[in-house]
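Summary of Year 1 activities. Much of the first year was spent building the evaluation harness for sequence design. The harness presents a backbone, in tokenized form, and records the residue chosen at every position. We chose the following record to illustrate the format because it has been used consistently in internal testing since the harness was completed.
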């Protein structure tokens, strides 16, 4: 045989270790990116995105990781987090790194409770982020788990700045 059993076992263990190392690195980078966004550390966030791209990893599927997190927390993408915290520059960087044909899917990705990045931006009153998402073509008609669109949330919150964004975007 080409490999004996002992050699095959060593090779399999090596591959398993490599896979574990790669998975751990992805978790570290995902958490680093989420932390940078939350802490408004644009430089670290942009550097994290660039490292991810350099390792052929895409940012838009990197949800926060950790055993102590709820399923809802684990469903939040970097774009959701940037929208929630009003990080316009990070939103732009994240969206610029997505292929044009995939951008709508990334913008319209939903959390466990069906919130899009637009829902988060509206809910937390970040009209500049909402405007950016709408300008880039996000779907404004998606409903969350309570049947509310981002517009409905803007009306419920009575946020004049966010409502103006929707008015400006109306045909």
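For this record, the design step produced the sequence shown next.
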């Amino acid at each position: 045989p080409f490999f004996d059993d002992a050699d095959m076992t060593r090779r399999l263990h090596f591959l398993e270790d490599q896979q574990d190392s790669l998975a751990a690195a992805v978790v570290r980078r995902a958490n680093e990116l989420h932390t940078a966004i939350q802490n408004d550390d644009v430089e670290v966030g942009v550097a994290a995105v660039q490292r991810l791209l350099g390792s052929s990893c895409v940012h838009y599927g990197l949800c926060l990781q950790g055993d102590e997190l709820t399923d809802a927390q684990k469903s939040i993408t970097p774009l959701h987090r940037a929208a929630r915290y009003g990080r316009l520059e990070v939103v732009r960087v994240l969206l610029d790194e997505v292929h044009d044909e995939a951008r709508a899917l990334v913008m319209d990705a939903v959390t466990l409770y069906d919130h899009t990045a637009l829902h988060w931006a509206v809910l937390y009153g970040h009209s500049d982020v909402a405007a950016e998402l709408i300008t880039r073509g996000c779907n404004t008609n998606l409903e969350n788990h309570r049947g509310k669109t981002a517009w409905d949330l803007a009306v419920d919150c009575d946020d004049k700045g966010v409502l103006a964004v929707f008015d400006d975007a109306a045909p």
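The chain has a mean pLDDT of 82. Quantitative recovery figures across the full test set are reported in Table 2.
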